[in-house]
Amino acid sequence: MLKAFLQDDSMRTVRSLLKATILITIAIAAVSSRLFSVIRFESIIHEFDPWFNFRATKYLVKNGFYSFWDWFDDRTWHPLGRVTGGTLYPGLMVTSGLIYHVLKFLTLPVDIRNICVLLAPAFSGLTALATYFFTKEMKNDSAGLLAAAFIAIAPGYISRSVAGSYDNEAIAIFLLMITFFLWIKALKVGSAYWGALCALFYFYMVAAWGGYVFITNMIPLHAFVLVCMGRFSPRLYTAYCSWYALGTLASMQIPFVGFLPIRSSEHMSALGVFGLLQIVAFVDYLRSLVPSKQFQTLLKTVVIVTFLLASAALVLLTVSGVIAPWSGRFYSLWDTGYAKIHIPIIASVSEHQPTAWPAFFFDLQFLVWLFPAGVYMLFRELRDEHVFVIVYAVMGSYFSGVMVRLMLTLTPCVCVSGAIAASTILENYVVLGSPKEATPEEKEAEEKKPRKGALTAEGEPKGVYSPMSKLIVSVTFTLYLLLFVTHCTWVTSNAYSSPSVVLASRLPDGSQHIIDDYREAYYWLRKNTPEDAKIMSWWDYGYQIGGMADRATLVDNNTWNNTHIATVGKAMASNEMTAYPILRQHDVDYILVIFGGLLGYSGDDINKFLWMVRIAEGVWPDEVKERNFFTARGEYKVDEGATQTMKDSLMYKMSYYNYHKLFPSGQAVDRVRGVKVPAVGPTLDILDEAFTSENWIVRIYKVKDLDNLGRDHASANAFEEGKKKKRAASKKGPVSMRV
Amino acid sequence: MRLLHSLLTLLPLASTLISASSSTPADLDPKHTQLLSKSTNGLIRVDDPTFEALVTGPRAYTSVILLTALDKRIGCDMCHLFQPDFELLAKSWWEKGPKEERHRLLFGSTDYSKAKGTFQKLGLTSAPVLYIFPPTVGPNAAPANAQPYKYDFLPTAKQGEHLARVISTQSGLPVQLHRPIDYTKYYLTAATILSILLTLKFALPYLLPVLLNRNLWAALTLIAIFLFTSGHMFNHIRKVPYMASDGRGGVSYIAGGFSNQYGAETQLVAVLYAGLTFCVIALGMKVPRMEGRGRQDVAVLVWSVVVWLGMGYLMTVFRVKNPAYPFYLPPLVK
Question: Span of the secretion signal (chain B) (predicted)?
Answer without folding.
Answer: 1-20
